[in-house]
Design a protein that fits this description.
The chain has 17 helices and 20 strands. It is α/β, with parallel strands linked by helices. The protein folds into four domains: 113 residues, Cobalt-precorrin-4 Transmethylase, domain 1 (3-Layer(aba) Sandwich), CATH 3.40.1010; 123 residues, Methyltransferase, Cobalt-precorrin-4 Transmethylase, Domain 2 (2-Layer Sandwich); 114 residues, 3-Layer(aba) Sandwich (Rossmann fold), CATH 3.40.50.10090; 110 residues, 3-Layer(aba) Sandwich (Rossmann fold). The strands form four sheets. It has a five-stranded parallel β-sheet with strand order 3-2-4-1-5, sandwiched between helices. Strands 6-7-10-8-9 form a five-stranded mixed β-sheet, with helices on both faces. A five-stranded parallel β-sheet has the order 12-11-18-19-20, sandwiched between helices. Strand 18, helix 15 and strand 19 form a beta-alpha-beta unit. It is elongated, with a radius of gyration of 27 Å. The structure holds S-adenosyl-L-homocysteine (SAH). The site of S-adenosyl-L-homocysteine (SAH) has 24 residues, from helix 4 and strand 10.
């Protein structure tokens, strides 16, 4: 029985350590804080127990005692437990206290250091926390305390006299008091200061100033937690060394409504462009028990109509050779890629990823017997058209999509977002059931005409429809909309 105290780094998922990813992939139980990189848990086992012990709904923190109790419970149960914390677990992360508690209870503990925000956020803002000739030392300080209060753990005069860079965690709301105490202690009012909000996230931003004016500037800019404040000459290097480019979607929030298993790739793409992504997986894919016909080789054609269908089909086949015989048609590039992942090159992929185009693309094939592998409920365009051509068509239902309730924080975040994206007609229905219809001010983005029809059927107008009916096409359409609206 081991509890691993693991640092997840400051926000950019690329800054997670190899060790952290390995332990996440192995864990039976993961207790995580809110301030971990987006997608940090993507590699967790499907059957792992994921427990959010961060702030609930952006408000109250799960009490430390409750987290401790969970750590002891799962540690004692002999589970492989990961306690995942933002940044480094031993830097203002209460990791030390949790380690003491576990050790006292006779539970083995390992520690995986993480990239701490106090170094990483400045680095991403082009600020080295030490620099020859400028800063020979750096101090990490909690800004959580009110510097005005009598009993303070922080020795402000000593800190003001510290010969080097001061890095404050948790202090954005007390910037005025911090600056005041430092100047009182003898620091120059013109000393450079930089505040880095959401450092290393795609929407990172930096506000610069001096001890004299940083508090006002931060208020003006509406800076909020999480932010790191750097005080010292090195803060002035931000102007010279800032390197981290804001993506074209910086400052935009985008809801992704796909099934959880599929959210990640689209979400990662959007995050890479700087968007703040709200994951609202209102649908879940439920695999159905099904068997491939034993005489599959005698069919002329096997149609696969979605990436989910392709994956389930491959699961059932177990070996790609079990699908040998019929020609294979994929409805679009996503489905084709899912087949290619198993080494199967589809014979037919229509230009546009809709059933009507697949029917056209199949026009020249002589078809007597066809198997359509698809969702339990789907449009009947394809089977009807092939039957009309005289083919014997059988349907092989492979999975169904079911509603997935959304937690209140996800619903709130979704209703506040700028864009809501839909990648299927079923996502439209289930999202509206779970979160309500998008508000009038939200831009609705549809992956293609069928999804747009579903939106219209719910009384909604898609503002943007992808030209290529793929997740990449959807991202391209969204980008075009953002830049068109920026121009006007
Ligand atoms: N253990 C964490 C710190 C936890 S305390 C670490 O080593 O980084 C929480 C504080 O960390 C926040 O109030 C903020 O000051 C800072 N912080 C965490 N992530 C941050 C980020 N991405 N950008 C700026 N500050 C961050």
């Amino acid at each position: 029985m081991t509890v691993h105290l693991v640092g997840a780094g400051p926000g950019d998922a690329g800054l997670m350590t190899a060790r952290a990813l390995e332990l996440i992939a192995r864990a039976d139980v993961i207790l995580y804080d809110r301030l971990i990189p987006d997608g940090a848990l993507d590699g967790a086992r499907a059957d792992a127990l994921l427990l959010d012990v961060g702030k609930v709904g952006g408000g109250t923190q799960v009490p430390q005692e409750a987290t401790n109790a969970l750590l002891l419970e799962h540690g004692r149960a002999g589970h492989e437990v990961v306690r995942l914390k933002g940044g480094d677990p031993f830097v203002f992360g209460r990791g030390g206290e949790e380690a003491q508690l576990l050790v006292a209870a006779g539970i083995d503990v390992t520690v995986v250091p993480g990239v701490t925000a106090g170094v990483a956020a400045p680095a991403y803002a082009g600020i080295p926390v030490t620099q020859r000739g400028m800063a020979a030392a750096v101090a990490f300080v909690t800004g959580h305390e009110d510097p005005g209060k009598e009993e303070t753990q922080v020795d402000w005069p000593a800190l003001a006299a510290f010969p080097g860079t001061l890095v404050f965690y948790m202090g954005v709301r007390k910037l005025d008091r911090i600056a005041e105490q430092l100047v009182l202690g003898g620091r120059s009012a013109s000393e450079p200061v930089a505040v880095v909000q959401r450092g290393t996230f795609a929407d990172q931003r930096t506000v610069s100033g001096t001890l004299a004016d940083i508090a006002d500037r931060a208020v003006e800019a509406g800076v909020r937690a999480p932010a790191i404040t750097v005080v010292g000459a090195v803060a002035g290097l931000h102007q010279e060394l800032a390197w981290f480019a804001r993506g074209p979607l910086a400052g935009r929030s985008v809801v992704v409504t796909r099934a959880r298993a599929q959210v990640s790739a689209l979400a990662a793409r959007l995050r890479g462009l700087g968007a703040h992504v709200v994951e609202a997986p209102a649908i879940r894919i439920e695999p159905l028990d099904a068997a491939l016909p034993s005489d599959l080789a005698s069919y002329d054609l096997l149609c696969v109509t979605s990436p989910n269908g392709a994956r389930r089909l491959l699961e059932l086949a177990r070996d790609a050779r079990a699908l040998a015989g019929p020609a294979i048609a994929a409805i679009g590039p996503g489905t084709a890629d899912a087949l290619r992942a198993a080494g199967i090159e589809p014979d037919v992929v229509p230009q546009r990823a809709v059933a009507e185009s697949l029917v056209e693309a199949l026009a020249d094939l002589p078809l007597k017997r066809v198997l359509i592998a698809r969702a339990e409920q789907a449009r009947e365009v394809l089977p009807e058209a092939l039957r009309a051509r005289g083919a014997a068509v059988e349907i092989l239902p492979l999975y169904r999509t079911v509603a997935e309730p959304l937690a209140a924080p996800a619903r709130d975040a979704a209703s506040a977002a700028d864009y809501v994206t839909f990648t299927s007609a079923s996502a439209v229905r289930f999202y509206i059931e779970a979160a309500g219809a998008p508000a009038a001010r939200q831009r609705v983005v549809s992956i293609g005409p069928i999804t747009s029809d579903a939106l219209r059927a719910h009384g909604l107008v898609p503002h943007v429809e992808a030209i290529q009916h793929t997740p990449d096409g959807l991202v391209a359409a969204l980008l075009a909309d953002v830049s068109a609206r920026r121009r006007c």
